[in-house]
TrEMBL record:
<dbReference type="InterPro" id="IPR036397">
    <property type="entry name" value="RNaseH_sf"/>
</dbReference>
<dbReference type="InterPro" id="IPR047655">
    <property type="entry name" value="Transpos_IS630-like"/>
</dbReference>
<dbReference type="InterPro" id="IPR038717">
    <property type="entry name" value="Tc1-like_DDE_dom"/>
</dbReference>
<dbReference type="InterPro" id="IPR012337">
    <property type="entry name" value="RNaseH-like_sf"/>
</dbReference>
<dbReference type="Pfam" id="PF13565">
    <property type="entry name" value="HTH_32"/>
</dbReference>
<feature type="domain" description="Tc1-like transposase DDE">
    <location>
        <begin position="183"/>
        <end position="317"/>
    </location>
</feature>
<dbReference type="GO" id="GO:0003676">
    <property type="term" value="F:nucleic acid binding"/>
</dbReference>
<dbReference type="InterPro" id="IPR009057">
    <property type="entry name" value="Homeodomain-like_sf"/>
</dbReference>
<protein>
    <submittedName>
        <fullName>Transposase</fullName>
    </submittedName>
</protein>
<dbReference type="Pfam" id="PF13358">
    <property type="entry name" value="DDE_3"/>
</dbReference>
Length: 365
């Protein structure tokens, strides 16, 4: 039987990569979280069989998520529900309602308001003759279905790194053609590891969700995980410590150095200050370890990020560990399971637009 052709997500921009990373960290809807992890892994070049193995999902599910994202973008990550009676307000009127909602009252000569509330917007629509009548709840549903929500204004922080392109190309070069004299290791910190109930998903009888305590104390503090992803084998190596200072980071580097004696280690890391400590740099220079730093605000380029998303989803989601020993054992069990199924990491974002950048792009309006 012929092997099914590989399916990959369309090329992702740097901003889309950051958005996916943010969703994998903050999404409360388990369906959206699971789909985002699939898309992020595919965007980093992982084929469907690898994703199905790590996510414990079917090939068809993974392919459908990728195809849907390619067709509809981030809208495909949200679960859709159907049913109900046909709408009484036409699609043209709905479109006009959404256009007005995205304006500010001052544009219509309304003073004293910097933004619309559902009540003032409904009154304005009726006064303008857009609709004869509309309830606030109906208006809310129309806006929500169109993807228009009431949001806080926000800022966008562009990278100020003057060497962004050079650093990014260096990282991509190591991903594409690992040096023959050594191996490439992606390192980062994961945490903090709190002892607290964590929302998750599991199979349960209908209308009988598993309950987690709502009140808890943090008497035992937090822990931090330092982890490294070996691209040659796809395996994760880690240490859990009480702190994540340069001393802990240097100790972790020494454990990686001892694991592969005689090989040059190319360690890809972000710009967290302990990574750049003088003692760390001096030791690295003396022990055939090259520290390769990501460009500022380029954490999506670190291949280990998608692995952290899966770790958070499977090892910690839906848990309520009462001790660090218990939680650390759960993490260890997941990583052992994952490493048994690990494969070499190749083809990181092979068709992404970032590979054609010659300068840092301006933020689109």
């Amino acid at each position: 039987m012929a092997r099914r052709p590989e399916v990959f997500v369309r090329p992702l921009s740097m901003e889309e990569g950051r958005k996916l990373q943010r969703i994998t960290r903050t999404a409360k809807d388990p369906v959206k979280l699971r789909r985002a992890i699939v898309v992020m892994m595919s965007g980093q070049g992982q084929p469907v069989p690898d994703i199905t193995s790590l996510m414990q999902a079917g090939d068809d599910y993974v392919r459908e998520v990728i195809h849907a994202f390619n067709e509809r973008g981030f809208d495909a990550l949200d679960p859709k529900w159907s049913g109900g009676r046909p709408p009484t307000i036409s699609s043209q009127v709905r479109e006009r309602i959404c256009l007005i909602a995205k304006t500010v009252p001052a544009e219509w000569g309304i003073t004293g308001h910097s933004t619309w509330s559902l009540k003032t917007l409904a009154e304005h629509l009726i006064a303008r003759g857009v609709v004869a009548s509309i309830s606030r709840e109906h208006l809310r549903r129309i806006l929500r279905k169109a993807g228009v929500s009431w949001q806080s204004t926000t800022t966008w922080k562009a990278s100020t790194d003057p060497h962004f392109i050079a650093k990014m190309q260096r990282v991509l070069e190591l991903y594409d053609t690992p040096p023959a004299d050594g191996r490439v290791i992606c390192v980062d910190e994961f945490g903090p590891l709190n002892l607290m109930p964590r929302k998750g998903k599991r199979w349960r009888p209908e209308r009988s969700p598993a309950r987690l305590r709502a009140t808890y104390n943090r008497y035992d503090g937090v822990m931090h995980m330092l982890a490294g992803l070996d691209l040659a084998t796809g395996q994760l190596f880690y240490r859990i410590r009480k702190r994540k200072r340069w001393r802990e980071f240097l100790s972790f580097l020494k454990s990686l150095r001892a694991r592969w004696p005689g090989e040059t280690l190319y360690v890809i890391a972000d710009n967290y200050s302990p990574h750049k400590h003088r003692e760390v740099r001096t030791w690295a220079a003396d022990n055939d370890v090259e520290l390769v730093f990501l460009p500022t605000y380029g954490s999506w380029l670190n291949w280990i990020e998608s692995e952290f998303a899966a770790l958070r989803y499977y090892a910690l989601g839906g848990t309520d560990h009462r001790s660090h020993a218990e939680q650390n054992a759960a993490i260890a069990g997941y990583i052992r399971w994952r490493n048994k199924r690990a494969r070499p990491k190749t083809s990181f974002a092979a068709s992404s637009p970032i590979r054609s950048w010659t300068s840092y792009p301006a933020r689109a309006a």
